[in-house]
Amino acid sequence: MRDVAVIGVGMTKFGERWDKQLRDLFVEAGNEALKDANMGRDEVQALFVGNFSAGSFVGQEHVAPLLSDYLSLKSKPAFRVESACASSAMAFNLACMAVASGTYDIVMVGGVEKMTDVSAPEATSVYAKAMDAEWESFFGLTLPAAFALIARRHFVQYGTKPEQLAMVSVKNHRNGSKNPLAQFQFEVTVERVLSSPIVSDPLHVLDCSPVTDGAAAVILCSAELARKYTDTPVYVLGFGVASDSMALHDRPDITTLGAVVKASRQAYRMAGIEPKDVDVAELHDSFTIAEIILYEDLGFCEKGKGGMMIQEGETEIGGRIPVNPSGGLKARGHPVGASGAAQIVEIVKQLRGEAGRRQVPGAEIGMTQSMGGTASTCAVHIFGRRKR
Amino acid sequence: MRDVAVIGVGMTKFGERWDKQLRDLFVEAGNEALKDANMGRDEVQALFVGNFSAGSFVGQEHVAPLLSDYLSLKSKPAFRVESACASSAMAFNLACMAVASGTYDIVMVGGVEKMTDVSAPEATSVYAKAMDAEWESFFGLTLPAAFALIARRHFVQYGTKPEQLAMVSVKNHRNGSKNPLAQFQFEVTVERVLSSPIVSDPLHVLDCSPVTDGAAAVILCSAELARKYTDTPVYVLGFGVASDSMALHDRPDITTLGAVVKASRQAYRMAGIEPKDVDVAELHDSFTIAEIILYEDLGFCEKGKGGMMIQEGETEIGGRIPVNPSGGLKARGHPVGASGAAQIVEIVKQLRGEAGRRQVPGAEIGMTQSMGGTASTCAVHIFGRRKR
Questions:
Q1: Res A28: pLDDT
Q2: Segment (H or E) for B47
Q3: pTM score, whole prediction
Q4: I need a labelling partner for B217 at 20 to 30 A (CA). Which of A42, A312, B246, B251 fits?
Q5: What backbone phi and psi angles, to 5 degrees, belong to A140?
């Protein structure tokens, strides 16, 4: 399979975007990615869009040709991929294969979600469609409640503490305060997180990623073409994708995310690296407990030591493995279908050295990890400044 | 890019399947495809699922890992693709690229829709999400109404007649009466079609494909592996995918489906064939007018002569280019996300000579054509008994 590279990235300001519709958000991100790649829109041969639930949020399915149309890509193939919160990460993965197969040389991959047109309770119901409708959400389980169950069990098995969860929020808000496109650009303290309202015990509102509007897009091409467009291509070194049982009750241990373990091991193998080689990572901190478990399941630390890893500052910018310099889902915001693409935008900026006040110095290898629902889907991509 | 082949197919009975849920339908089709391929489920490396709107029909997004889970595919990568009525055709296209890239050797591709859990008016509203929500469905345009506009204009420009539309229904019902898995296994007459209730003038209810539950699945592998599993592999000779403006009002001429023209020309070129070389075709007859326009836009006849083509019996089994021997969407039924895969199931059976009473004698080259909404998406695949 031939190598592929990212040569352009773009994203909108994330937040409550009352000024823009779904299509407008995507056009904004797509145009920025084209500009960043120094490329005319006629050169793009296909579009891959990640979107979770525009059907429920704004009454629109079949978004791919709509977005292609509004981006003036003119009759090009346009694919929509849906994998809950991992939608645009999975779209990126399929786009990698499409370019690797030789079918296309240059494609645009992006994600978009317009969530604030519905009320918060409605949004919670839509989120719940990412879990098992028959055996989980029908009985009232919501995504925050599912992660609250996971957190409680992690507390019991490994002694993890609410304060450690709060530290994830503190770190990601601090990073987000340095990201002009983040939804939340303010800092929080452990005390403020722990005194914020409970959403589902032990998770406070400041343990949860927000409801967000936004879009992100990248331009992907075959590695041999990349230098025609940029002096700083970012290569895809490896990837892994895995699934897990949909319902939590079918898993042997809810404190281990099996799909994350499998997807990351595939990605490390394909890239020929080990966890310690990762210089910067964007992880799926939909809830603070998720980021702690991800440290463990990605092999950044021993199982059960995720709480200590955040406590000791190892994932701060400047730490051993900086995680979520963008602010993560927590502070950058989480427009569900766009988050996977936004992670890639951040890692590309980090590897190019263009991340401004939140730059991880000298980053050479970056990782994105995205998951859907309670990690029934996980996609991991590893990027590098140099080819495999 | 390396060649790929279909080595196993399966589908459920289409119809009102009160006995089964979404997941059960897919498991039934998937298991049958595995059995047909003489393959254990552990050999499948990834799952590609086409589904239009389970989020709206049954409150379930993120269906790919759910279906993988219930099929016991165990933690394998599972992708969901949504392109309205072309969902599983587009999933098949991406699966072809994934195998061609060398990422996977053997994958399952399928589609499923469970539509009868909502009322008919609700179903019509869900269908409408396949069009432009802001500029079409918001103002009350439904899919039947959109195709009614197209039909009226075709009448004016080319002199096509309601009787000719009815003949499409008559042919497809006749074929469907020979298909034990079809939703409607009864014949109709031109008189009966024309005296059936009007849905949107000039389209009668017997001009429209029905609301259907069902699933279909195929096993796809690299061509070099195919003979290990079967003596009758069916090779993918070529494909084409294109999009068009979402809203009808943005098209220069609503009687020509631009995406169909573009996708089919790409597919012919890749396969190295011409329209006259097609021995059997499964086309997207969501409405009878669609099949007539498809004859024209696929190059089976001159523009404007589609009405004459059905009238002269050229697309009957035994005619010049038999179309929809399965009964098509009209009589086989149209479980939106499954229809693209069901077309592939039929063409594979036809090329293997296993289509029973509806067999097209000596078929060597087959075509599937699937489209979403008003053909804002079109995917064409060409299959053959021999490699390219």
A1: 98
A2: strand B46-50
A3: 0.98
A4: B246
A5: 100, 0
Range A360-388 average pLDDT? 97
Sorted by where each begins, the domain ranges of chain B are: 4-118+211-229, 120-210+236-384
Asked if the domains A4-118+211-229 and A127-209+237-384 are classified in one and the same CATH topology, the answer is yes
Å from A250 to nearest chain B CA? Answer: 10
B35-46 as b/e: b if 16+ CB within 10 A: ebbebeeeebbb
CATH superfamily of A4-118+211-229: Thiolase/Chalcone synthase (3.40.47.10)
Categorize the per-residue pLDDT at B4 as very low, low, confident or very high, splitting at 50, 70 and 90.
very high
In this predicted model, what pLDDT tens digit does every residue of A270-313 receive, in sequence order? 999 999 999 999 999 999 999 999 999 999 999 999 999 999 99
Instruction: Dump the DSSP string for B131-185.
Output: S-TTTTGGGT--HHHHHHHHHHHHHHHH---HHHHHHHHHHHHHHHTT-TT-S--
**Distance between CA A194 and CA A192 in Å, rounded?**
5
Number of CB atoms found within 10 A of residue B159's CB = 11
Interchain contact, B377 vs A65, CB within 8 Å:
yes
Strands A234-243 and A377-384, by their bridges, are: antiparallel
Q: Which of B64, B76, B129 sits opposite A60 (nearest CB)?
A: B129
Cβ of A101 and B1 within 8 Å? yes
Give the active site residue among B284, B334, B378, B381: B334
User: At A388, is the pLDDT very low, low, confident or very high (cuts 50, 70, 90)?
Assistant: confident
Exposure on the CB side of residue A230, measured as CA atoms within 13 A: 25
A66 touches B at CB < 8 Å:
yes
* B310 reaches A (C-beta below 8 A): no
Candidate from B52, B77, B100 with C-beta closest to A101: B100
Could you tell me if A98 lies within 8 Å of chain B, comparing CB atoms? yes
What percent of chain B has pLDDT above 90?
Answer: 98
Among the CATH numbers 3.40.50.1580, 3.40.47.10, 3.40.1190.20, 3.40.50.2000, which is that of B120-210+236-384? Answer: 3.40.47.10
Phi, psi of A242 (to 5 degrees): -150, 165
> Which two tokens mark B59?
């409150």
Does residue B186 surpass a pLDDT of 90? yes
Put simply, whether B168 touches A (Cβ < 8 Å) is no
Active site residue A85: yes
> Does residue B85 carry a catalytic annotation?
yes
B51 pLDDT higher than 90: yes
Q: Which CATH number fits domain A127-209+237-384: 1.10.3720.10, 3.20.20.60, 3.40.47.10, 3.30.420.40?
A: 3.40.47.10
Cβ of A242 and B58 within 8 Å? no
Nearest CB partner across the interface for A130, out of B62, B73, B376: B62
Average pLDDT, chain B: 97
Is B244 in contact with B251 (CB distance < 8 Å)? yes
**A-B C-beta contacts closer than 8 Å:** 193
